[in-house]
Structure formats: structure tokens, C-alpha cells
Amino acid sequence: MMKLLTGIVVGALGFALLSAPAVSAAPVSTDVSAMENVSAAAVSRTEMIQRAKSWNPHTAKRIPYSQSKTHGGYRTDCSGYVSMAAKLAKPGATTVNLASSTYTVAINKNDMRMGDLFIDSIGDANSRHVVIFEKWANAQHTAYWAYEQRGGYGTDYRARSYGLGGDQYKARRLKNITG
């Protein structure tokens, strides 16, 4: 009797499974790097610096700083300026986003090359900052020349020491930079 009952249950279950409509699930991507990448046009190191210069740093024609205004479609704050120079989507990534693996990778400060970034992504919108590294200002690497969009001034080009010790700035390289 037990064998007969087991046979009926197994047969009914088999029939139910065979007669049920097929269900297919869409494939799910497990490639995290593909999900994090944001499409951005490639930009060479030289082109990035040329684009940074287009906002007339350290001149009377410099672009005024604002977290709410735009110039050419880009926010006129530090991260909007870097986004413009790097050919990222308008109105520009935030400083926090620029510091993420979506846009950049961490590098050693001794490996800085023209077009790399020093980013402080800690704090609030009034304390976070990002600058574009151009070149070392001295052989000791205690300062470098940088392009930045800074509060109270606007577009600037000056020697800086952010990221060289004792602060929250980190060296980062854009994923879309070439050369």
C-alpha cells in the first residue's frame, strides 16, 4: 500500500512539473565593475589641462564660484569644473562621486601625473574639495601646481600642498583619462 501511495504522489508531482509552463529569468549581471562604470568620453592629459585653462584661471575673466550656477552646462563649483575638464556628463559629478570607483581609482601620491586629482570627499558641501594636478612645483615634491575652482574666488591656478600629508586629500586617477 505504501509503495502504491508513493508512486501516485511521485507521478502526480512529475505530471505537474512537466505540464507547468516554462519560466525563464532574465540573466543577472554579477560583474560589479561593469555596473559601476559610467560612460565618459576619453580625455588625454593634455586635453584635460587645456579644458581646465578654458575657464581662464587666475585672471580677471575667471569663472566665479557657485554651487548653484552653471557655465557651459557645468556647475561652477570644484567638482563641476573637474567634470568639465574631464569631459564627464553635465552638470558634473559631485566631489563624493569623483572620489568613488565609479569615476576614479586610488593611486600613490608619488605616481601623480598631469590630469590626476587630489580629492577631499570628507565633510559637507562646504568643506569637500577637488583639484587637478598639473606638475610638481619643486624637486622635493612638497608642493604642486593645480587648477581648481575655489569658493570666494573662482577658477584658479596656483601652487598647493593638499594631499601631501596631514590632511584628508587622496590621490585619484580618472578612469577615462588617457596617456
Key structural traits:
single chain, 179 residues, alpha+beta, endopeptidase fold (from Nostoc punctiforme), 6-stranded antiparallel beta sheet, two-stranded parallel ribbon, 23% strand, disordered N terminus
What does this structure look like?
With 179 residues, the protein is an alpha+beta fold. It has one domain: endopeptidase domain like (from Nostoc punctiforme) (endopeptidase fold (from Nostoc punctiforme), Alpha-Beta Complex), CATH 3.90.1720.10. The chain has helices at residues 2-19, 32-36, 45-53, 78-85, 95-98, and strands spanning 43-44, 70-71, 74-75, 104-106, 117-120, 129-136, 144-150, 154-160, 170-174, 177-178. The chain has a six-stranded antiparallel sheet with strand order 4-9-5-6-7-8. Strand 2 and strand 3 (74-75) form a beta hairpin. The longest helix has 18 residues, at 2-19.
Brief synopsis:
The protein has helices at 2-19, 32-36, 45-53, 78-85, 95-98; strands at 43-44, 70-71, 74-75, 104-106, 117-120, 129-136, 144-150, 154-160, 170-174, 177-178. The chain is an alpha+beta fold. The protein has one domain (37-178): endopeptidase domain like (from Nostoc punctiforme) (endopeptidase fold (from Nostoc punctiforme), Alpha-Beta Complex).
